[in-house]
Every structure is written in C-alpha cells, then in structure tokens.
Amino acid sequence: MSTASASAIAELLRVGATYAQVRATLGGASRNDIADVRRAEGIPVPERPQLCRTPEDSYALYAEPYGDGHARWTGPWAGRMPQVCHPGKGGRKESALRIAFRMRHGREPQGYVRPFCSEPDCVASGHLADRTIRDNLKRQSNAPRGTKPADPAPRRTPDQAAAMKIRADIAELLRAGRTYREICAELHVSTGTVTATRRALEIPRNPPARRRTDAERREETEQRHPRVAQMLREGKTYREITETCGISGFTVNRIRKILGIPSNKRRGRRTVAETLALYTQPHGDGHARWTGPTQDGRPVLCAEGRVRTGRREAFRAHHGRAPDGQVLNSCDEPGCIAGDHLTDKTIRDFDATYHAIFGDTA
Ligand SMILES: [Zn+2]
Ligand SMILES: [Zn+2]
User: What is the reported pLDDT for 2?
Assistant: First the structure.
C-alpha cells in the first residue's frame, strides 16, 4: 500500500467514514489495510448507533404482502419464528407476530400469537389471533344463541368446531367497512359467521348507515319495481298487480305509499263486507273458499283504506265481534273461510269445557 493511499485512508477515517465508505471513495483497499492504518494512526472507532429502526418499521420492511391480504416474512428468523430486533446495542429480540399483533390491536397479545388464515407462515397483522381472540370464538361456538356460556364448556359438535375457524376473508371485508349484507352476498356466508368473526377479532361495528331521504327511497323503489309503479298509476287493482308481478299485496301497498300514489278510488270506496262478498265463494256443504289476494298463503283483503286479514274479517262479519287469539277453521275443508266454520280461542275453550262435562254424545 502506498503512503499516498494510507494518508487518504487516515483522512477519511478521521472524519468518521465507515470501511465501506472508504473503499467506495478510494475505489478499493482491503479491510485489513484500512484496519492497519487505523491502528497505526491511533484513530478511535466511532460510536455508531447499532440500529435505529423501530420494531414497527422493521415489521413494515420485512413483511411482504401477497395473495388475499397475507404477508410473508423476508427478515431474520429465530428457528421457525420471524424475529425483530428492538433498537439499541444488544437490543431485545421479539417475535414479529407479537409486534404485528400489537400494531393491529393496540394491546399486548395474550399467550401464543398464531395466524388463523389458510397460510401457516402468514405474518399479516390482520390474520393473527392470540388466546383472547381464540377464547372469544370458543365462547361463541359453545353457547347457543342468546345464552351465557355454560361452565365447564360442553364438547363441541363437529359443526360447531368447523364454524369456529375465523374467516380471514370476512375479517378483511369487515375492516374495509363493508356491510353484513355485502359480505354475505360476496362470500356466501351467513350473518352468524360474520358476527362470529367480528366478535372474535373485536372489530367494531360500522356506524349506523345514514337514513335514506324520501326522495332516494322513491327513486330506488321506482327502479326496483317499474312495472308495479306503472300499474298503480294506471289505477289497476292490487289483485291485478299481485297476479301480474308475483309480489304480495302488502308489498304493493308499501310501494304505493313510498311513491305517494293515491289509493285507487274504487278500492277506497269498497267496504269490508263488500270485499268479503267479492272474494268469498261458497261451495259444498256450507263451506267457502277464498278467491282474493293472499299473503304467505293466508287470505288478505284491502278495504276501507287498509290491508286486513281475511279470516279475522270473515269471523268478525259472522260473529259480530273481534276474534280472540288465532282464527282456525273447525271443518275438514282446508282453507275454508265460511264464517260459521271459523273458531277463535273463546269458542274453542267453550267447546273443550262442554265436551269435558257432557262428552261427545251430548
Ligand atoms: Zn394470511
Ligand atoms: Zn268449512
């Protein structure tokens, strides 16, 4: 090594250059040569901060996102555990999973931190669960709906055990602020599954959606049911609309109200008695069948500006009083709506008492 390069090395070392910087500046020089110069000139080794990255920065540097929200570790490992050094000389070493968990949840993890997604080595902070989260989930799957968990925990059925898995895809969508309805539609899961994941991971609920304005509701309804809107405006009856559009009378009524379409005059004028007469068709031995609109298979009628239950109105018309409890027909003709074949709780109670005292022959 020439004297010229030795003095150049000494000069650089004195201003605090690292060995790498010396080599880069001079276009060469071995580590041993540089060390020799340092010793010969008595230049002290400067105190250099060992590492100035925070654990959070290290995590961000080494966790490489891939696929559906997963992340793989590209940093140092301690055995099978991804590892991060805390700053400072001889800084404490910590599992990257714990650091990621703390970043996501803002609290210390309890017990082991493990990914719950399909990737066994995933380090994505949103895919990690600690004991608290696993316990949250266990408590939910053990307890039947709306009850407190029994103690000791009962054995899980295979179904419950399968349902216990936290779904990473659901968690992603929940955190993205998507609604239950959107998540269920996209992932084909039940609201129960969404709730289980949300509760286990302690993801807060979305703030309640802003109520739609009347104008927005009108526009949405208009777009969803253009044919119904058109028929209502043409003055068609509910029956004609339910038959054409395949929706219930209740829905037609709701659409009419939202759209602010005045009710059909003819329908408004018709009384309950007239409507009953119109839709009740006598047959057989005093029976009657309903020919009017139905809702879930039960007769309904629109009269005097309201949607009413056919059986209750038929009972009231025959007995001259409001029925008490459920209205059933006492004859063997299914769906019979003849007034004197309809019973309410009072009539059935009376019949039961009568039979108890006098027997069937009386
Ligand atoms: Zn993952
Ligand atoms: Zn009957």
Answer: 66
